[in-house]
Sequence to fold (151 residues):
Amino acid sequence: MKTLWILFLFALLPANESFKAKVIGVTSGDAIVVKLDDKTQQIVRLEGIDCPEPKQAYGDSAKMATVDLCFEKRVRVEKVGVDTYGRTLAFVYVNDVCINKELLRKGLAWHYKDFNNDPELAQLETEARAKKVGLWSQPDPVAPWDFRHKK
Fold:
């Protein structure tokens, strides 16, 4: 029942909403927990990227990079929607730094092309691959969506 109530509340929020919050948790490289000014909490899934899973190569590195970039910091959340799990889909900024884009630059995420067609995100992944940074230094990195299906 609690899950249905949370999903109902998310459905009431406008899709392209912007708000400020404090990051109080990092659950993975591409998911954080924020506390809003009214003390409510939201799980935010970083839009347009997919980081390696925790048991994959670079999974822990992606999570630690997200921690370093935003944990216990005030962020601006640019909401673009809600995913099938009820999480807020958003671009997250610390000052003018977009966390989503930084993870791509560092080679710690894939551009999630099945759900996002942003050419800038695609270009950031292409550049990281060419420079062989992060997970792109591996000979055959496995995309997280493929890793999840093999479980």
About this structure: The radius of gyration is 15 Å. The helical segments are 2-12, 59-70, 99-105, 119-131, 144-150. Residues 119-131 form the longest helix (13 residues). The CA atoms of residues 50 and 145 lie 8 Å apart.
